[in-house]
Structures are given as structure tokens and as C-alpha cells.
Task: inverse folding
């Protein structure tokens, strides 16, 4: 009885892997095709068109754009806001991650959920909320802040706040899983070898999460350069004052200065691509010491 | 006394990990904390290290009250089961960590690291990363790292638990030699009774948050204080209502005085030993002989045999309702039966020793 079963099952076993292999190859090609079509239709082709339009008549359109003081002001404002945002994201992102992973406290899960909120809430809502809270005339803190000479809404601080709000989760979500993975034993070992909390953080924890932090920061930089909705509401979109690069693109586009709009878009896309290339170059070196 | 633990109590929620534990560990010795998983031994070690704080009680290390000191200030070396290697540092940097924290001069650090790597046979691996080492090598590195700061006590938390059997045995032997060489007070947590018996000068058996017995390996093996210690430290069987080690059972084919009569039900040959299962009044009893002894005896399945304890060996009364049970990790062949049909006093847990 048992012998018969084995004898019967044998040819099936021999055939099965072959059919499996063929199935797997078909699936692989299918998936590859889907991904390539997706990338081409939604990302590569449209972005390529922007580059093509920008350079349709050589460098003239790009040169004109960079000579436009409205555009250059907006670009410098964007760069400045992005730098401040990244610095804040770095400090708060790592801090919040440590808090979430290393400490157990009441409301920890609520905090964890709140950190994710900006990823799901529309940036426009974020902008409106900030205006309600910090607006000069009607805001909750706005009046007293303005009394102290600090203008938040329709000024750089408001833009920075909106950008930090939407980009902070990018750092936290990169760092938290790595912190969880490395665990606490290395830190405990460092403590028992005489290291203070600061020494342990600088010599053990930080090197271990370094690449996650870099990756999160680059992502948040890309996000900070590209933020539109929240910034539009918070900044007031004042030309030469609070207009950022993305806002310039919209305005130029609506004012029928298409070539400037495309050129500025191209610069924004270029910055994002450079960010991603930097990460791609850095990442392989990370897998090595593991 | 190098480490003095007084009345330590520690709870995690409702779970009592340690219940009023006091123990003194003498300077220069290698002490093993032995017990089943979840028995509190690791918690005790972590409290000594300052990685965990007790709810009540005191810890004194070399006469200094360390109860409230952070691990940073206790000067203890701690070795983790999973090595806790600093993954981004080379072996040499790992070993040098404690010294560089103490801001020792570079030349001194280099010399000391060299010396320690020599001690743990890792000189050739100084510039490797931990990920390029085997488990055993990583643990030796972790030991060198802990020893680098010249700790008052060295604490090892199941240091060989994550290694495979062969490496574990090698490292065990090596640790014993290392300890003879370095002479630092060492506390080793283990659930492996063989490891404890082989390596330790003294064994503290911990179970259910309490200390069951403290003593030398020989004392614990030969005169266990109760049935738990007896079954945890080695194989155990039942004879005439008392617990006895199977190799302490005398077996005869002819009648002898004060013996229990039974029938051989099974013979199992395992390497050098022969295990003989005997049915004594419906109660299974195990006797082990060497194969030479077995040849000389010539018993076969179905033989009627007379069993009695070898003169002078200790036996332990079977507990009435089995308050202690041999837990996971116990090698005991025979379970500690929960019901007692014996003539002995059920509550008498005192070992009788010849």
C-alpha cells in the first residue's frame, strides 16, 4: 500500500518542480512588465517631458528663469526653509524615535499614531490648522506672538512649521525600526563598560542608526523642497517675500509664463533626483559592515 | 566577600522573579547560578550588574553599597548571551571601548588590547568586524571587552547558550582555564547543569525566585537538599519511595537483604552505559550500569532482579504532592511522581547521607 503510493507520487514529484519553475518565470516577467509600464507611464515619461520642454530651445529658458528675481528669491527661500526644516527634523526625529522605542509611558501609542498623522492628512488641512492656531488676528497664540514681535503666519517661521509638520514622520519612520532592531543590549554593554548616557548615544546608538537617519533626512529634504499645499496657505504666497519655489511654479504657470514654470519645475525635480542618487550611492556602503 | 546580596526582592507586575534572596559570593571564585528558565537567576545577575533594580534589598560589591549605583559606576564586566558586540567597531575597538571611555593613554590602550586579544586567542582578528567572526569568537571578544576594564566582578549571562554543543564544550573548558589564569570573581548564569558542574567552584541553585541550595558541585550532586536539586543536577529514578540516581542502584540476580524485587522490562544500550528498566511492584525504576558491569551481571528482559541503593549514597524522599518538579532543561530520566505510595514522611525533604 505504502509502496504503491510512493511509486505513484514519484513521477508527479519529478514534474512538479518543472511546472513550478515555468510558472514562476511567467509571473516574474509579468510583474516586471507591470512595473516597467507603471514607471514609464507615470514617472519617467512625464518627468522627461518637463526636461524636454525646459531644454526645447537650449539653455535660454533656464537662463531667463534664473535671471528672474522672483524665481531666484523663491528658490533661495525654499533652500533656506529646507535647511532649517532638515535641522529640526534631525533633532526632533531622532529624539521622538528614541522616546517611542526606548521608553514606555502612558500615551506612547497615541503619540506614535499622531506622528503618522501628517502622512495621511492633506497638507492643505495642516496649513489651515496652523493659520487657526498662529494667525496674527484670529489665531489662538497669534495675537500674543505678534505682540511680542514674532510673526508666524505669512512669514518664514510659518513655512518652516508647516514643512516640519509634514516631513518629520519621514525621519521617525526610518529610524524607529532600526532602533527596534538593534535592541538595547549594545547600549547596556556600553553602560556596564563605564559609558555615560551621552557617550553611549554618540558612540553606540548613533553609529548604529546613522544610515537610517541619513536616509530619513534626505527624504525629508526632498519633501521640504517640494511641499506645496500647507505652504501655500501658511505663507500667503507673497511675491518676493514668502513665495517658495513650488508656489512660483504654480503662479508662473497660471500667468502663461510656461517656460519659466517648466524650468523651475525641472530644477525642483533635479534636486529630488540628486537626493535619491545620493541615497542610492550611500546605501550600498551600509550593507557592508553588517 | 566580593558580592553580597541581601534580601533582594524583585517583581515584574504580578510575577515574583526573586523572593527575598540573600547570597554571598566569595572573592576570586567562579560561581554558577543554576536553575530552570524563568527561575530568577538572570534577574539576580542583572541586579548585581545594575541593569535591573531590585524592589527591596541591597547589593554590596567588594564592601561598597552598590544598590543605587548605575551600571556605569559599578565596575562590573557583563557578558550577554547574544554577545552584544558593537557591530560597527572592529574587534580591537570593541575590546578598547571601556578603556577609551576612561580616557587612558593610547599606547596603554593598545598594549592592553593586544594582551587581551592574546588571552582570548583573537590576535589575528583584531581588525575584523564582529559580523566576520563566528559565534564562539564573538563571545571571546565580548569576554575580552569585559575584562579590559579590570572589573571587580565578571558576570556572564548564559554566555554559551547561543552556541552549538561542540563550541559550547570547548568554550566551557577554556573559560575554566581562563578563570584560573585571571582569577577575577566570576558569576555564571546557566540552565545547563553539566556546565555548572564542570566549571563552577560553587553552585547556587535558584528556582521560582528562591535559592534551593548553595554548595560545591560535589556536595550538590551527592547530597542534594531536596528533590528539586536532586532532579535538576542529574538523572533521577525512584526506588522504594525515595529518589535515587540510577547509577547508584545496585542490581542483583539473587536475593540480597533489604532489596526491592522487580522484573526487567527493557534494556537500552547508549554508548558506554546500559539502561535497565525494572518494574518494582508496578513502579518503574531505572538502573544504569556500564557495559562491562552488565555483561558480568547477565540480566535479560524478563529476569527477576533485586534492587537496592549502593552503600552510602544519598537518597531523597519523594514529595507528597510534588511541590518541585524537574522543569525544562532537566536531564532526569524519571519524573518525580506526584503521588506517593511510600512509607516515608512526605514532607521530609532532608537528604539522607551516608
Result:
Amino acid at each position: 500500500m505504502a509502496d504503491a503510493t510512493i511509486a505513484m507520487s514519484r513521477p508527479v514529484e519529478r514534474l512538479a518542480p518543472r511546472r513550478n519553475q515555468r510558472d514562476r518565470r511567467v509571473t516574474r516577467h509579468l510583474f516586471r512588465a507591470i512595473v516597467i509600464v507603471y514607471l514609464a507611464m507615470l514617472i519617467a515619461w512625464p518627468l522627461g517631458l518637463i526636461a524636454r520642454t525646459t531644454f526645447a530651445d537650449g539653455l535660454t529658458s533656464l537662463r531667463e528663469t534664473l535671471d528672474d528675481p522672483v524665481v531666484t528669491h523663491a528658490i533661495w527661500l525654499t533652500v533656506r526653509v529646507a535647511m532649517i526644516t532638515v535641522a529640526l527634523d534631525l533633532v526632533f526625529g531622532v529624539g521622538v524615535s528614541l522616546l517611542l522605542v526606548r521608553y514606555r509611558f502612558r500615551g506612547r501609542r497615541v503619540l506614535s499614531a499622531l506622528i503618522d498623522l501628517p502622512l495621511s492628512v492633506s497638507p492643505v488641512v495642516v496649513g489651515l490648522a496652523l493659520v487657526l492656531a498662529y494667525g496674527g488676528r484670529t489665531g489662538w497664540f497669534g495675537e500674543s506672538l505678534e505682540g511680542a514681535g514674532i510673526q508666524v503666519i505669512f512669514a518664514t517661521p510659518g513655512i518652516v512649521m508647516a514643512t516640519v509638520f509634514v516631513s518629520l514622520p519621514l525621519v521617525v519612520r526610518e529610524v524607529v525600526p532600526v532602533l527596534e532592531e538593534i535592541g538595547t543590549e549594545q547600549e547596556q554593554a556600553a553602560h556596564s563598560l563605564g559609558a555615560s548616557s551621552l557617550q553611549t548615544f554618540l558612540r553606540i546608538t548613533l553609529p548604529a542608526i546613522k544610515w537610517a537617519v541619513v536616509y530619513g533626512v534626505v527624504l525629508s529634504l526632498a519633501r521640504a523642497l517640494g511641499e506645496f499645499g500647507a505652504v501655500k496657505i501658511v505663507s500667503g504666497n507673497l511675491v518676493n517675500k514668502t513665495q517658495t519655489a513650488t508656489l512660483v511654479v504654480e503662479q508662473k504657470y497660471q500667468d502663461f509664463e510656461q517656460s519659466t514654470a517648466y524650468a523651475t519645475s525641472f530644477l525642483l525635480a533635479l534636486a529630488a533626483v540628486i537626493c535619491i542618487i545620493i541615497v542610492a550611492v550611500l546605501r550600498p556602503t551600509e550593507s557592508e559592515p553588517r | 566577600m566580593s558580592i553580597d546580596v541581601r534580601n533582594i526582592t524583585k517583581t515584574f507586575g504580578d510575577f515574583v522573579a526573586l523572593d527575598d534572596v540573600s547570597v554571598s559570593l566569595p572573592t576570586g571564585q567562579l560561581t554558577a547560578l543554576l536553575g530552570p528558565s524563568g527561575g530568577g537567576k538572570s534577574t539576580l545577575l542583572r541586579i548585581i550588574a545594575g541593569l535591573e533594580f531590585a524592589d527591596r534589598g541591597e547589593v554590596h560589591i567588594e564592601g561598597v553599597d552598590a544598590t543605587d549605583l548605575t551600571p556605569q559606576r559599578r565596575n562590573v564586566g557583563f557578558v550577554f548571551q547574544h554577545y552584544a558586540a558593537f557591530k560597527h567597531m572592529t574587534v580591537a575597538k570593541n575590546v578598547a571601548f571601556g578603556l577609551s571611555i576612561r580616557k587612558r593613554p593610547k599606547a596603554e590602550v593598545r598594549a592592553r588590547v593586544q594582551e587581551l586579544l592574546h588571552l582570548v586567542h583573537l590576535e589575528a582578528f583584531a581588525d575584523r568586524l564582529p559580523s566576520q567572526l563566528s559565534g564562539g569568537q564573538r563571545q571571546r571578544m565580548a569576554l575580552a571587552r569585559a575584562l579590559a576594564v579590570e572589573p571587580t566582578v565578571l558576570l556572564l549571562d548564559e554566555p554559551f547558550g547561543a552556541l552549538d554543543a561542540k563550541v559550547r564544550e570547548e568554550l566551557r573548558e577554556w573559560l575554566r582555564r581562563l578563570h584560573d589564569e585571571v582569577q577575577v570573581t566570576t558569576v555564571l548564569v546557566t540552565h545547563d547543569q553539566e556546565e555548572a558542574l564542570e566549571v563552577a567552584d560553587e553552585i547556587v541553585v535558584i528556582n521560582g525566585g528562591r535559592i534551593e541550595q548553595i554548595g560545591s558541585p560535589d556536595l550538590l550532586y551527592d547530597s542534594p537538599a531536596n528533590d528539586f536539586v536532586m532532579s535538576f543536577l542529574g538523572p533521577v529514578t525512584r526506588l522504594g519511595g525515595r529518589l535515587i540516581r540510577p547509577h547508584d542502584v545496585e542490581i542483583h540476580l539473587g536475593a540480597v537483604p533489604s532489596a526491592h524485587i522487580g522484573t526487567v522490562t527493557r534494556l537500552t544500550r547508549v554508548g558506554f552505559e546500559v539502561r535497565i528498566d525494572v518494574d518494582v511492584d508496578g513502579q518503574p525504576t531505572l538502573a544504569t550500569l556500564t557495559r562491562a558491569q552488565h555483561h558480568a551481571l547477565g540480566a535479560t528482559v524478563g529476569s527477576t532482579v533485586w534492587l537496592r541503593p549502593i552503600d552510602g549514597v544519598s537518597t531523597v524522599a519523594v514529595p507528597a504532592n510534588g511541590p518541585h518538579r524537574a522543569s525544562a532543561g532537566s536531564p532526569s530520566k524519571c519524573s518525580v511522581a506526584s503521588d506517593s505510595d511510600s512509607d516515608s514522611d512526605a514532607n521530609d525533604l532532608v537528604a539522607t547521607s551516608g
